[in-house]
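Q: Given only this backbone (248 positions), what sequence would you predict?
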């Protein structure tokens, strides 16, 4: 198993891409620590993995609250003794025209989608630097690469996560740490299912593969960046969108 014996933190692990990633990593032998504000969902995923004979645990995490981030990091390190991988997968969005956004929505979007990942990464980096071993995968969005109508501040936060990935990769290379980014396109998550059917159908037609991504499609890309096949890759952004956002 590719991740045998490695400890990996996955935020947003209670549902969608985070759930698929947590279960895939657990099946590949990782000791998975799931962080999410959805305690019931996080416990369900941990229980599901354990029922399959894998090692997974849930610890409550609210990325919008700095103290919660600090407490989660301490608990995760206490449980594992050291982190080999971090997947910053949690995110939140509400599709709405920019001029209709209440300002407090901007604060929440940036706190969860950008600053939460920054704070947690900072908290977990010291033991990774000391060990000179570890991999970080930030799950951004193609909205952060090419923009998205109705998701302007979300796209800004996700674009910031891409820039954070690249800059951190430069700083961490001296410690032999890999930092990469996965950008999903439209994916069949609870958030996507809440969109109007006409929007879901239009996106499906626009994708060259003519299907919406499944969370497992994104999880496989995350596994690649956490595993040994990406040891010489850092600071890269991989779009997993079925060809929707091809660039030259």
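A: Predicted residues:
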């Amino acid at each position: 198993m590719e991740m045998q014996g490695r400890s990996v933190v996955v935020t947003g692990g209670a549902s969608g891409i985070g759930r698929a990633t947590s279960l895939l990593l657990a099946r590949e032998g990782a000791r998975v620590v799931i962080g999410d504000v959805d305690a019931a969902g996080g416990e369900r995923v941990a229980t599901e993995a354990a029922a399959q004979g894998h090692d997974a645990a849930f610890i409550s995490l609210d990325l919008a609250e700095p103290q919660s981030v600090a407490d989660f990091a301490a608990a995760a390190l206490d449980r594992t003794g050291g982190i080999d991988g971090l997947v910053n997968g949690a995110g939140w969005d509400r599709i709405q025209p920019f001029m209709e956004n209440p300002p407090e929505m901007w604060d929440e979007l940036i706190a969860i989608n950008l600053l939460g990942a920054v704070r947690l990464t900072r908290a977990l980096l010291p033991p990774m630097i000391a060990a000179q071993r570890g991999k970080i995968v930030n799950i951004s969005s193609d909205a952060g690469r090419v923009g998205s109508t109705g998701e302007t501040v979300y796209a800004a936060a996700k674009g910031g996560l891409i820039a954070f990935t690249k800059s951190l990769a430069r700083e961490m290379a001296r410690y032999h740490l890999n930092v990469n980014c996965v950008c999903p396109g439209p994916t069949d998550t609870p958030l996507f299912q809440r969109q109007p059917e006409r929007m879901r159908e239009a996106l499906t037609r626009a994708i060259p593969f003519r299907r919406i991504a499944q969370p497992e499609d994104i999880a496989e890309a995350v596994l690649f960046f956490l595993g040994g096949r990406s040891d010489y890759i850092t600071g890269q952004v991989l779009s997993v969108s079925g060809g929707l956002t091809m660039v030259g």
